Amino acid sequence: MTTDQSIASITADLTDEIQQVAKQYPIRRSAIMPALYLAQDKYGTVDGIVYQAISEILDVPEIWVFEVASFYSMYNRTKLGNYHIQFCTNVACMLLGADNVLANIQKRLDINAGETTDDGLFTLSCVECIGACDVAPVMIVNEKYYNYLTGERVIEILDQLEKDIKEAAK
Amino acid sequence: MNEQALLKNIRNPDASDITVYEKSGGYTGLRKALGTCSPDEVIEKVKSSGLRGRGGAGFPTGMKWSFVPKDSGKPHYLCCNADEGEPGTFKDRLLMERDPHQLVEGMIIAAYAINSNIAYVYIRGEYFLSISRVEEAIAAAYAAGYLGKNILGSDFSLDMYIHKGAGAYICGEETALLESIEGKRGQPKLKPPFPAVAGLYQCPTVVNNVETFACLPHIFRRGVDWFTSIGPADAPGPKLFCLSGHLNKPGVYELPMDISLGDLLENYGRGARTGKFKAAIPGGVSAPMIPSSGFDVQMDFSSLAAVDSMLGSAGVIALDETASIPSVARRTTEFFSHESCGKCAPCREGLTWAAKILRRIEAGDGLPDDPAQLEVLCGGIFGLTFCALGDGAAWALRATLKHFPHEYEALIKNRSIPA
Ligand SMILES: Cc1cc2nc3c(=O)[nH]c(=O)nc-3n(C[C@H](O)[C@H](O)[C@H](O)COP(=O)(O)O)c2cc1C
Ligand code: FES
User: What is the DSSP letter of B363?
Assistant: First the structure.
């Protein structure tokens, strides 16, 4: 997957914003993480073309950009579905039945963790604790938390999300 | 009900608004600190308050600040550790989402004390609402003259920025956090030098936890005596406990640290769902678990250390009788193995191997000497890594082997394949 952009178009899109955020730091290298976020917000993913553009805008070696993009899990180097499900499987959630909920999600979407449905609607990621253990089991879909999940409730949520996006597309 | 200081405004949906915060006494602590104390006097006050860091290690906050050299000739930096990733911990999120000015005010006081003009709030990337609430709070503080040039008419100036994390537990470790702000992979560095001497951009730097900062406005508004009147002498002040797991009433509770683990679970968490506890993890999954026979332990730094565990992040995960200890150990070890930054071999290789053994035990394919093998692996990790991630992983795993050997033995004895 690529962002389908050219270096010129990325530079045109992002130079001002990246230069702006770089002012928050005494060295340009510090702006690599926010620059990657800016690119991701705009194009959905980050890839080689983006690294090259950022390296030019910030005047840092491209490998520095790649190093960061490949270390941190929240930079998407492959395209995600419309809905990105981040499902917590850590201990507090596990104790309250996360494994069963996860099995239901996988069955309903017919994908495993790390995969995207064929229609491009859902990507499923299993993640570590997302700081909502008191309302476990939990997941984040795009930026929204869903609490107290059960096997049934999660299916209702997925059905609703699918309905929402199909309505919106009409 | 104990007096609520840190959580005073938590149920007010408008508490993140600066005028609401000011009406409840917000920013008077800062006015007092700036108006009546020199930076050194602020440090002395925090020292005498006995405040200890809420991020994991319980290091005395005033003492940490006093290590910042006075004449380095370099800029000083202040960083807030809002990377909250320790499984079982969710107090910093609550503070940032519901009462973000408490954090901002605390950071301004701290920056004044250590003579810093630039502060970064390192917030984990998944905390979307925290990020926007703190962003709004910073903007409002600029507009009200609490941030920017010549704060409240003094000659102290401070700029504050958010640096968003991007999904790496290890960036909660302070040297990794600083590497991350520098725009690098979050890999811990060997200490010393400590950040107070050579931290961000090789300059003197202080890193404190969200809750540590949140205590500061109260210390200056209410006074040191008020603060030291709460809880045990060597662990004064209010503390947030995160309760999760098999409990009837999980949540964040603000209490003094002289409460016992059992009291916390029974009277605040309202007991186990099945009626009977097996064990509890007292301070996030890095903290060794305590079997229910040890629930009379007091929830402060030294009491928990005395029973070979730690207060850590105060993320208390309760396990009732239905919990399988080897499964919890397996999941915890997988977490550490997954989040290992990969820099040092004992952590990277040892945890991968330990997780593999734990998976086979859980699947019913464990070998009779697997528990002994796990002990050997823990011994090869503990104390031999750059940062404390490996220590926490090995220490937590060992506690399960020590307190619940029969659960491992039972799984191994009933294994499906012959040895
Ligand atoms: C693997 C690892 C993860 C950590 N994660 C956090 C964290 O998420 N938040 C935090 O405040 N401290 C965390 N710490 C502790 C920090 O290194 C540091 O001690 C702390 O932020 C200091 O703040 P305090 O003095 O206010 O407690 C972590 C430490 C280790 C070894
Ligand atoms: S363990 Fe799932 S949110 Fe903390």
Answer: T
Instruction: Please check whether residue B333 is in contact with residue B397, taking contact to mean a CB–CB distance below 8 angstroms.
Output: yes
- Note the ipTM here: 0.96
The C-alpha R_g of chain B, in whole angstroms, comes to 22
> Tokens for B266?
């029974």
What residues does B165 pair with on adjacent strands?
none
> How, if at all, do strands B205-209 and B77-82 pair?
parallel
Instruction: Give chain A's count of helices (H) and strands (E).
Output: 7, 4
* Mutate-to-test residue for ligand 2 from A133, A139, A148, highest number of ligand atoms within 8 A of CB: A133
Contact B80, B107 (CB under 8 A): yes
Domain range A83-168, its CATH number among 3.90.1210.10, 3.40.50.720, 3.40.30.10, 3.60.21.10: 3.40.30.10
Cα(B315) to ligand 1 centroid in Å equals 13
| 3-state secondary structure at position B208 | strand
- Distance to chain B for A140, nearest Cα, Å: 9
* CATH class label, A7-71: mainly alpha
Q: Which residues pair with B60 in a beta bridge?
A: B52
User: Does the distance separating the beta carbons of B89 and A129 come in below 8 Å?
Assistant: yes
d(CA B36, CA A51): 50
pLDDT for the residue B419: 46
Token readout for B286 is 């890095």
With tokens 């970064």, the residue in question is B120
Ligand 1 atom with the shortest distance to the CA of B59: 25
Q: How far is the CA of B198 from the centre of ligand 1 (A)?
A: 17
Residues 91-110 in A contacting B (C-alpha not used; CB under 8 Å): 91-92, 94-96
Check if A89 has its Cβ closer than 6 Å to any atom of ligand 2: no
Cβ-proximal residues to B67 (8 Å cutoff; 6+ apart), any chain: B194, B196, B197
Report whether pLDDT(B2) > 90: no
CATH of B18-229 given 3.40.50.11540, 3.40.50.300, 3.40.50.720, 3.40.50.620: 3.40.50.11540
For domain B325-414, the question of CATH label 1.20.1440.230 is answered with yes
pLDDT tens per residue, range B198-226? 999 999 999 999 999 999 999 999 999 99
Q: Is B69 helix (H, G, I), strand (E, B) or coil?
A: coil
Percentage, residues of chain A above pLDDT 70: 98
Q: How far apart are CA B179 and CA B385, in angstroms?
A: 18
- What pLDDT, in 10s, does the model give residues B45-70? 999 999 999 999 999 999 999 999 99
3-state secondary structure of B278: strand
Q: What percent of chain B clears pLDDT 90, i.e. is strictly above it?
A: 95
Query: Residue B242 CA: which ligand is closest?
Result: 2
Which residues sit with their C-beta closer than 6 Å to ligand 1?
A: B 53-57, 59, 81, 83-86, 170, 172-174, 207-209, 212, 387-389
B131-140 pLDDT per residue, tens: 999 999 999 9
Q: How far apart are CA B92 and CA B222, in angstroms?
A: 22
Helices B100-114 and B128-143, interaxial angle, to 10°? 60
Residue B226 to chain A, least CA–CA distance (Å): 30
